[in-house]
Amino acid sequence: MRMLRNVSALILRSGITAYQSRLCTNDSLFRVHPTVSQALAENRPVVALESTIITHGMPYPHNLSTAKDVEAIVRAEGATPATVGVIDGEVRVGLSSEELDYLARCKSSLKVSRRDLPYVISKGLSGGTTVSATMIAAHRAGIPVFVTGGIGGVHRDGENSLDISADLTELGRTPIAVVSAGVKSILDIGRTLEFLETQGVCVATYGALQSFPAFFSPHSGFTSPYQVCNPEEAAELIASTLSLGLQSGVLLAVPIPEEHAAAGQQIEEAIQAAVAEASAKGVRGRDVTPFILQKVNEMTKGKSLQANIALIHNNAKVGGQIACALSKHRSERKVAGETHHQGKHSSKSEIVVIGGINVDFIAKGKTKTLEFGQTNPGSVCQSFGGVGRNIADSLSRLGRRPLFISATGADSHSDAVFNYCKHMNTSGVARLEEQNTATYCVVITESGELSLGLGDMDVHQQITERYVSQFEKQLSSATLVCLDGNIPVSTIDYVCSIAAKHNFNVWYEPTDPEKACKPFLSEAWKSLSYSSPNLAELCTMNRTLGLPTPEVLPSALDELLSVAVALSRPLLEHLHCLVVTLGENGVLVCGEHDAGSVNMQPTKHKRRGQLCAVHYPALTVTAEETMNVSGAGDSLAGAIMAGILQRRDTDSCVRMGLLAARMSLGSPHPIAPALTLESVDPEKFHTGTWPKPSLVWID
After folding, report:
1. CB of 639 closer than 8 Å to CB of 398
2. Cα–Cα distance measured from residue 9 to residue 4, given in angstroms and rounded to the nearest whole number
């Protein structure tokens, strides 16, 4: 992580604006089964399933057989089932066969809704998750489709008792698609639909009719606001909801199959009798539904149980089909987006970025010196960084649509990252269970000097050759692939090997002097086309190749440029272009001479012309204008890449980079949200006279 690396001429002093950071929950209390985690990492369809049907919905052994049958139906449709439950105080997304059996037999299991989660976890108890608790767990794991039997609702006389299911409010604040058979007729269906409207929940009936179903009956006497006829229409609806970022869910009401609806009238009569008995016996709250279901099953001699199982099986089938259609829809939209993007610019404009994602915490003291061992006054700012993420973010805001390949944990930090990065193509980012999303905490003095930095970056090592190889097709067809120095050496070697095979350009972005050596530990570096080191990193590259480097870097500009040129010369035997960042002294671009400048455009041939270097002086930024120093260098690199892919001349590319870096310094975020092509267009930027670049020949 280049938190305070002097990568551009713009970094002078930092001033950080504090804002509220997001709290993190204890991830030891939340576990995703490896099969579910792997499916999510590979962008395959997953269906979440609740477990109160196991613990409270049916007697043993019907509950266990139904749970296993439902999972089998989901698998048969091509999706991965993820039954959610709480076992010994741990929320589990995806239960093993043994865990399903445990919940099915457990006599002391609780019915766990949103309100119950803290207590059940604190006491180390077990239970079945209701719709609301399952939605919370599924959303946190990144699962967009959830199948249940029926949701809760507004109870009869709810306008007086205020007995309203937490399922409804959860649908209003958690972006999950819930596939259910509507709501049971023991509830006030009209008021339930009104309450869902108030919560902003999109409700649609699935199938040929628009009638809202009443669990055991396909007709409740009420009409759904909307209707979707097939899995593809349902997937379109879900995708639209998630893309809008409304943070509310979708309710897809699936009528019970007609062959099982025939007994509906008998069941309805039994329900009314059971409701009356419950009222007479004073049954209230969470005990009402289990009491009524048991009584109805007794009165109908098992017909209600058969119908219940049938509708759950049907919901599982429909939910599996919708999850698969949604997965396919996302893939097609991705391809369509790339095709549209390529058509808008050029057929060879695709770019892939492989690197790290970090959640950054920047603590800035309010005094000239910081005293260790005691509390110092200051401010703390949270932002989203990582060199790879920053570059992909910059490119995304500058009109490109890079495929970003990375890895995070399956934790609350990753939720925040994905929410912030909605404008980016993050389909190549794996969310891994039992891994922490990378975090970086830096403590700086009032003047912006680094005092202490701590980083948890282990997840970057999960960006493995094996994982990245899944994207070989996208890599081989790219014009440019950018690697950051946080990824493993083996992954860098792999990308360089296929770059040599498929003849695409690779940009290596070193993240610090220690990691700058990675491609140079083997012959991999000879497949690089671009790199943007600072002088310390350039020294590391040379030393790794066994070449001499100065023990102390000079301070005078002429001597500094001379050293930079000398260190760049051996690397240019194979690299097409080097962008050497010189801190307050500007940027030095080294490569093949072309029309009085350096040729930065991608090339598939070896260098033929004479080498030269062009020095670009700094754009100055005052300390008062500077808010954040964490992304200036990445903004510089991303904007230069965007300019290259637009086939701009070298002067325009570098000036785009300098302007983007300047915007980064003035923003609390590493990449300024206001960054656009227009905002960094040198022809539209009126700064007076640009500092004049100077040409240096390289022997």
Report:
1. yes
2. 13
Of 62, 56, 67, 31, nearest to 108 (Cα)?
A: 56
Residues 6+ apart with CB under 8 A from 568: 538, 578, 580, 588, 590, 613, 698
Q: Please, what is the Cα angle at 466 between 460 and 469, to 5 degrees?
A: 105
| pLDDT tens by residue, 65-83 | 999 999 999 999 999 999 9
> Which of the four pLDDT bands, split at 50, 70 and 90, describes residue 544?
very high
* Spatial separation of the C-alpha atoms in residues 306 and 662, rounded to whole Å: 67
Known catalytic membership, residue 123: no
Whether the per-residue pLDDT at 176 is higher than 60: the answer is: yes
What pLDDT shows up at residue 456?
92
Residue position matching structure tokens 């066994």 = 546
Inter-helix orientation angle 650-665/632-645, to 10°: 150
**Of 71, 111, 170, 184, which is the active-site residue?**
184
CA distance 217 to 272: 14
Phi, psi torsion values for 509, nearest 5 degrees = -110, 95
State the Cα–Cα distance between residues 498 and 352, nearest whole angstrom.
14
CATH architecture of 345-698: 3-Layer(aba) Sandwich (3.40)
Cβ–Cβ < 8 Å for 312, 53? yes
Domain boundaries, the chain: 33-198+260-331, 345-698
Active site residue 50: yes
Residue 359 pairs in a beta bridge with 384, 439
Q: In this structure, what token pair is assigned to residue 575?
A: 């690299």
CATH class name, domain 33-198+260-331: alpha beta
**What is the Cα–Cα distance from 185 to 183, expressed in whole angstroms?**
7
Does pTM surpass 0.70?
A: no
Q: What is the DSSP letter of 187?
A: B
